[in-house]
Amino acid sequence: MTPPIDPGVDIGHVHLKVSDLERSLDFWRDVLGFEVQAQIGDQAAFISAGGYHHHIGLNTWESRGGEPPPAHTTGLYHVAVRYPTREALADALHRVLEAGIRLSGASDHGASEALYLRDPDDNGVELYWDRPRDEWPKRPGGGWDIYTAPLDVRSLLELGTEPT
Predict the structure, then answer these.
(1) Based on the domain organization, do 91 and 164 belong to the same domain?
(2) What pLDDT digit, counting tens, does each position of 95-117 carry?
(3) Taken in order 34, 27, 147, 15, is the CA torsion positive or negative?
(4) CATH code assigned at 132
(5) Strand order in the sheet with 35-40
(6) pLDDT tens across 68-82, in order?
(7) With contact defined as beta carbons under 8 Å apart, do 95 and 26 qualify?
(8) What range does the domain containing 149 cover?
(9) CA 105, CA 148: separation in Å to the nearest integer?
(10) Pair 102, 139 in one domain
(11) What is the CATH number of the domain that holds 56?
């Protein structure tokens, strides 16, 4: 049996193929608030939170003017953006709604609360925060009891304040 991966490993970044870089930046930068760290004309942008070199790469290298992949094919299901607090997730919800973007779902997973939507290229996007680990529901015998239940979006809206 192969030993488990080093627990310090994490996902450093994801690259998304997009059809129009500026349209994607309108969403990722202007709505969600990621900062552009570097840009290569209208071909690619590297964005992050907090000045990291990039959490998300957006590029048109193979996809300029392209269409989203058809349903029922393989590929990226969604990219998940983890917020540090419930208040930060509430702020993200206000930003999304203020931009006129519809949610495709909202779930309480026990360990986390999540909002689901689509970016301009129809990529799935999950915005979520993790509850403190000592509050995660446990299964009898070990492991986590992760589930999907409706999220109380109203309480999230009441928690956040509208961006200025």
Answers:
(1) yes
(2) 999 999 999 999 999 999 999 99
(3) negative
(4) 3.30.720.110
(5) 14-17, 56-59, 44-48, 35-40
(6) 999 899 999 999 999
(7) no
(8) 78-164
(9) 11
(10) yes
(11) 3.10.180.10
